[in-house]
Amino acid sequence: MQVVQTPKELKALRDSLPGSVGFVPTMGALHEGHLSLIKKSVEQNDHTIVSIFVNPTQFLPGEDFSKYPRRYEADKKICELASVDILFMPEADAMYHEDEVIIKAPKAKGYILEGHFRPGHFDGVLQVVNKLFHLTKPTRAYFGKKDAQQLYLIQQMVRDFFFDIEIVPCDIVRDPDGLALSSRNVYLSPQERQKALLLSKALKRAAKMVQSGEYSVERIKAKMREILEDIKLDYVEIVDREFEPIENVVVGDTIILVAGYVGSTRLIDNIWI
Ligand code: PAF
């Protein structure tokens, strides 16, 4: 595995790779969720590039940018063992210039849900992913469904900017007790971790309601809010796969999303129905 830090080195190495290239962008502190994306990329492509970059532009003032877990040595080992070909670990000043051309997330879909509670977050995500796509020129790029709205907006960006990249959505990986894996789970105390299970419990309950024939978004959301009463919620929402609001769940075209705080840790989770 080659570890590179500058865009110039990355471009030169990438251009030397024959065949298909899979790309897995991450912010590091790698866990089984990331590993599932990497494994899929290694399976489906001749070469795999992983990036680890805690991207400052997607954090709002007051968010956890400075305390976001950084585990560079452990992450390198994980990538090496997973047969990654190139690991890109840039510094922020190699990725950004002062007063640079910026990308804005679309007004409607980029500023609802996550974008409403973290306004500007998706501008930063799209900005950095756009740069990373230009540097890595992947055949396929791998994103987790846990960040469902991010995945949707990246698919939009690929369409809008005519990128020739296949976006591969990957299933959420959960701990055996149901908690969706996230690099931010390390912030949780044992008691908070227990409380955090309410998120997946509420989503499971919602899925069960649908299975037993309850399609009303209003009633499903009411039940979820009951289960989640001990959590300071940002939102419980049910949308279609285009992130449009709906009144009734349509199996195969619905995502149920939840976001809230357990202590001071903000967690998100969702289920695709
Ligand atoms: O999902 C993430 O980890 C980040 O938002 C991404 C896609 C690596 C961009 O910084």
What would you note in describing this structure?
The protein folds into two domains: 2-170, Rossmann fold; 183-267, Pantoate--beta-alanine Ligase, Chain: A,domain 2. Helix content is 37%, strand content 20%. It starts with a strand and ends with a strand. It has 273 residues and is of the alpha/beta class. It is globular. The protein has helices at residues 7-15, 32-44, 72-81, 92-95, 114-117, 121-136, 148-160, 190-211, 217-227, and strands at residues 2-4, 21-26, 47-52, 86-88, 140-144, 166-170, 232-240, 254-262, 265-272. The strands form two sheets. A six-stranded parallel sheet has the order 1-4-3-2-5-6, sandwiched between helices. It has a three-stranded antiparallel sheet with strand order 7-8-9, covered by helices on one side. The protein is built from nine helices and nine strands.
